[in-house]
Amino acid sequence: METEVKLNYLKWLTQGLEIDMFEIMSMLIIYSQCDLTRRLELIFQLFCYNEDLRMDRFEFKFMMNKLCCSIGATLQIKKSFLHDLITGIDQKFLNGNAFDQMNKISMEEFVAQ
Fold first, then answer.
1. 98 has a pLDDT exceeding 50
2. Do 23 and 71 meet the contact criterion of CB atoms below 8 Å apart?
């Protein structure tokens, strides 16, 4: 695992990208050996700024942006695929009924989606 993280870090440097703590932490969580549900919970906790673990739309968009940047910087994925992925997530979460009347989503709702 240590070598893999160093290679990913090196890729950020060789592409001349600014290294961001949220992007590094996201990739560490994604590469962890936890099950998928636990990884989603950890990612949610990383980007949710309030104690009641209810993420607002701004935090959600920020999270998705950082996840896309970190995935795009470390994996060989076509940008069109990432665009399609984000469009699908926007439709499911932001335009759908995932957020409550206060425009927030809980960690349980996020993981269940």
1. yes
2. no
The domain segmentation of the chain, as residue ranges, is 2-112
Q: Which two tokens stand for residue 10?
A: 């090196």
E-strand spans in the chain?
54-56, 104-106
Of 100, 96, 78, the closest CA to residue 88 belongs to 96
- Report whether pLDDT(4) > 70: no
Distance between CA atoms of residues 48 and 46, nearest Å? 6
Q: What is the average pLDDT across 7-25?
A: 72
Tokens of 68: 């896309």
Contact 20, 72 (CB under 8 A): no
**pLDDT band at residue 8 under the 50/70/90 scheme:** low
HSE value, Cβ hemisphere, 13 Å, CA-based, for 96: 12
- In this prediction the pTM is 0.71
What is the widest separation between alpha-carbon atoms in the chain?
45
What interhelical angle do 21-31 and 57-74 show, nearest 10? 70
Residue 34 is predicted with a pLDDT of: 84
